[in-house]
Amino acid sequence: MERYIHILLAGSVIGSMALCMVEDIRKRQIHTAAIVGFIVLNGMMAWYEHQEWKQMAAGVVLGIAFLLISICTGEKIGKGDALLILGIGMHQGFWSALMIVFTAMLMVCVHGLLLLKKKKGWKYEIAFVPFLLVPYAAAIILQVCSDYISV
């Protein structure tokens, strides 16, 4: 039964982020309710996995740092993206969340270079959530699978 709850929570986290991704691609903004739902699901996942509060707090600090960057840069990185990073950090902890964000940023750089090659220009906005979703979903899937695969 515990396995199914863990898989259901993991699927819910990935699904809620996928909904945020669709909103980000279509409207370039994410509704507050979707972000709150994502953060709550990440908190539940962290609680279920018995995440240490120090790791959760450090991950939240990473999200707050991105929120401050968003405010200082006039939302070059959206506040919604920063709050999603906060949720990821709450669940994964500081270092894992940092690696997920780093991987997403590398993917955005490659995508941006391809767009520049097509002459889209410097002011073209790129939805960041799809690039966050890929490494985060991979991390969750690997984590859940490794918990239940016996060697």
SSE topology:
Elements: H1 2-27, H2 32-48, H3 53-72, H4 79-92, H5 94-117, H6 129-148
Overview of the molecule:
The structure is a single chain. The protein has 151 residues and is mostly helical. Helices cover 80% and strands 0% of the residues. The protein is built from six helices and no strands. The protein has helices at residues 2-27, 32-48, 53-72, 79-92, 94-117, 129-148. Helix 1 (2-27) packs antiparallel against helix 6 and helix 5 (94-117) packs across helix 6 (129-148). The model has no long low-confidence stretch (mean pLDDT 87).
Task: Provide a quick synopsis of the model.
By secondary structure, this protein is mainly α. The chain is built from six helices and no strands.
Q: What is the assembly state of the chains in this entry?
A: single chain
Spans of at least 5 consecutive residues whose pLDDT stays below 50 are none
Count of individual helical segments: 6
Helix/strand/pairing category: mainly alpha
Total strands: the figure is 0
Shape descriptor reads: globular
Q: Estimate the helix proportion, in percent.
A: over 70%
Provide mean pLDDT, rounded: 87
Give the termini separation: 21 Å
In N-to-C order, the SSE pattern is HHHHHH
Strand content: under 5%
CA-atom Rg in angstroms: 16 Å
Major beta sheet summary:
none
